[in-house]
User: Which sequence fits this backbone?
């Protein structure tokens, strides 16, 4: 469906590299998904499989037609010739890539390890359900609420997490929804971030090429970036950190100019401008997706906007030195380019969630309070990140916190490790690479590399809690670029570094295991029928202690609650996600009545099929009471279908007529 | 002229040696971190379990 975007960008091959077109097609495809879901969910409130499919087919068909429409005099090409040219280019790229691997044993080994890792991740993602804390707590419940309502709207605020669910930007959750709604299953939803990881590899490669680094070292950098343990582990979870990091790297890739090409100096000014316009648009879309994915998005927007304005102002001021030019005119032209091609796409993709919060709560990031120098700009309930940092972090300074975490004083990796996760390659190869590359580029006045360094380093320094590895995965991308930049300058002495890179890649490959997925669990899940591969059967290490008592009713729900059934629950569970069935085609409703009749009325109105109650709760007593009243001809009946010492599920049966 | 053309090469060689030394130092620091032993123990346990599972078929 989204190959139409690649064909669309294929028309721009004179001004866009192959990698930029691949990354661009990915950004445009993701944007298409988000825009269609926002339109159907927020505007028309008809976010169901058929309308979504139809909207995307129409949009992709439009793009496909546009791709084959002649856009310049004499530029008309037949459909078949465009496709054959695109295929020919693909064959050429594959052949070049193969030659590159054939001539570099170390690179070929690292590439093989990457492919094996990705295959293993796909296998694990397919085999295991979503088991991670935040996925069960709010990422997947967001999807569940949207799917049951067919609409993107705020939910009733009856639990701590619900206020966050209402406030969070949800672009990545819309992608999770895309991976569930058509399959009627959550089987591949935990692989959503893997697509970002793969595009992240391409993006690092693309930036390296633009910085003038040799192709094989650009490839080393991008593949070594992949072996970041927290990225590998998170790629099979429903978190958003990998997506955030990769979207930022994508935006940087499009914002920096293609120095390699512009150095040749034989391109027309029109081509340069066209290239800049497309690059800014795609950077704007990527930043917009990022803005609408996490509340830290505005920070990235601010930094990238500043970079673009500086680039435009310096480029215009430089190129028009000879011509007398009004300073205001330079500023206006730069602003126009920035607003039209970067800010508009950015706001289109990312502003909805903040606008909604602003309108509903008079604060774009509610319930967070925003204060600047002690002055409250937006009132909220919380002044900072709610989760307290680990004790050791409180005892360290701003500078030593990341250093301590990068040393990885941990016993094992987790998808959300807080005291480690960037891996050995980052610490051993990339950190010295950063130092060397910055010093070298300062000495040699390599401003292109210094600009990239400044973007990544300032973003890292300004990021709240930048010691948390999963928040700053993007800095490993910069480390990879620095490493390639360093190796690129060493001339013919690289075998020792290549050997070290391969050894560390093998080491990272071996040690990126998590206690959440053990070999015994893998064996157990291979033997289980697909329908029984649930989180309750997995009993993952990260949540097991907290939810052992819940497994029983989770299994019952996944086995018995069907499409269209409504499960009414009467207490605040730790995780909402397991209250839906695995395809999120059932509904959930919180029903707490003041009296028995009031509760019954609520059950009738919400069309409840089942009620989930705590043993010895008020509702439990009401159900027992209704049993004793049934012989008196009570209209409603509760048939207990599941019971354990803590929970009961009863089928709610209403009298006909 | 010859001396001048060799100068960048000498500089690169020096940088290269410093870089390798830095990598070695970082590797020593990284692998001697206090928790590294328990990290290795966990990995050995994970892979032993994997071997047993594969051996059991």
Assistant:
């Amino acid at each position: 469906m989204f190959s139409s975007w690649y064909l669309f960008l294929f028309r721009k091959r004179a001004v866009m590299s192959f990698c930029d077109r691949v990354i661009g097609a990915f950004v445009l495809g993701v944007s298409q998904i988000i825009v269609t879901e926002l339109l159907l969910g927020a505007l028309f409130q008809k976010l169901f499989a058929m309308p979504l499919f139809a909207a995307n087919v129409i949009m992709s068909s439009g793009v496909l037609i546009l791709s084959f429409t002649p856009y310049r005099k004499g530029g008309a090409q037949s459909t078949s010739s465009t496709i054959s040219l695109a295929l020919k280019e693909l064959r050429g790229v594959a052949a070049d890539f193969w030659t590159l691997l054939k001539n570099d044993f170390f690179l070929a080994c690292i590439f093989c390890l990457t492919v094996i890792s990705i295959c293993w991740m796909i296998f694990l993602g397919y085999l295991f359900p979503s088991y991670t804390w935040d996925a069960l707590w709010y990422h997947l419940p967001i999807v569940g609420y949207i799917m049951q309502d067919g609409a993107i709207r705020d939910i009733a605020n009856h639990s701590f997490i619900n206020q966050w669910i209402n406030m969070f930007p949800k672009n990545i959750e819309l992608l999770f929804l895309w991976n569930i709604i058509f399959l009627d299953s959550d089987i591949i939803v935990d692989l959503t971030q893997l697509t970002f990881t793969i595009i992240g590899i391409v993006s690092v490669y693309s930036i390296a090429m633009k910085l003038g680094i040799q192709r094989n070292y650009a490839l080393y950098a991008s593949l070594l970036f992949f072996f970041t343990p927290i990225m590998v582990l998170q790629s099979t979870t429903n978190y958003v950190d990998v997506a955030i990091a990769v979207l930022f790297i994508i935006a940087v890739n499009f914002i920096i100019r293609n120095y390699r090409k512009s150095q040749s100096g034989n391109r027309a000014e029109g081509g340069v401008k066209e290239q800049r316009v497309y690059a800014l648009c795609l950077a704007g879309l990527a930043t917009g997706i990022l803005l609408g994915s996490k509340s830290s998005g505005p920070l990235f927007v601010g930094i990238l906007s500043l970079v673009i304005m500086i680039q435009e102002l310096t480029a215009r001021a430089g190129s028009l030195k000879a011509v007398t030019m009004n300073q205001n005119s330079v500023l206006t032209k730069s602003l126009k380019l920035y607003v039209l091609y970067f800010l508009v796409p950015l706001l289109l993709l990312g502003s909805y969630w903040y606008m909604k919060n602003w309108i509903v709560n008079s604060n774009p990031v509610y319930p967070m309070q925003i204060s600047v120098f002690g002055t409250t700009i937006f009132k909220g309930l919380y002044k900072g990140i709610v989760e307290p940092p680990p004790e050791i972090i409180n005892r360290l300074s701003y500078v030593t916190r990341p250093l301590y975490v990068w040393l990885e004083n941990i016993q094992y990796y987790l998808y959300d490790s807080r005291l480690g996760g960037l891996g050995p390659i980052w610490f051993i190869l990339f950190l010295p690479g950063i130092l060397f590359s910055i010093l070298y580029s300062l000495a040699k006045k390599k401003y292109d590399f210094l600009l990239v360094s400044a973007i990544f380093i300032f973003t890292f320094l300004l990021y709240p809690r930048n010691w948390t590895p999963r928040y700053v995965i993007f800095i490993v991308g910069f480390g990879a670029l620095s490493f390639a930049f360093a190796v690129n300058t060493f001339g013919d002495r690289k075998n020792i570094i290549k050997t070290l890179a391969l050894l560390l890649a093998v080491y990272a490959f071996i040690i990126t295991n998590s206690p959440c997925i053990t070999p015994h669990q893998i064996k157990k899940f291979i033997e289980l029928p697909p329908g029984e591969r649930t989180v309750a059967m997995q009993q993952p290490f990260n949540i097991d202690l907290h939810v052992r008592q819940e497994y029983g009713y989770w299994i019952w729900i996944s086995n018995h609650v069907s499409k269209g059934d409504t499960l009414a629950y009467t207490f605040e569970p730790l995780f909402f996600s397991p209250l839906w069935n695995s395809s999120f085609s059932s509904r959930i409703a919180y029903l707490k009545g003041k009296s028995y009749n009031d509760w019954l009325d609520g059950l009738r109105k919400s069309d409840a099929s089942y009620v989930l109650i705590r043993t010895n709760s008020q509702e439990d007593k009401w159900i027992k009471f209704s049993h004793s009243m049934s012989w008196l001809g009570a209209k409603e009946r509760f048939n207990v279908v599941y019971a354990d010492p803590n929970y009961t599920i009863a089928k709610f049966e209403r009298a006909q007529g | 002229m010859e001396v001048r053309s060799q100068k960048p090469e000498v500089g690169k060689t020096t940088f290269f040696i410093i870089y390798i030394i830095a990598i070695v130092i970082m590797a020593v620091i990284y692998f001697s971190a206090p928790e590294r032993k328990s990290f290795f123990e966990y990995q050995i346990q994970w892979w032993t379990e994997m071997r047993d599972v594969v051996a059991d078929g």
User: Anything to note?
Assistant: The longest strand of chain A covers residues 637-643. The first helix of chain A runs from residue 3 to 10.
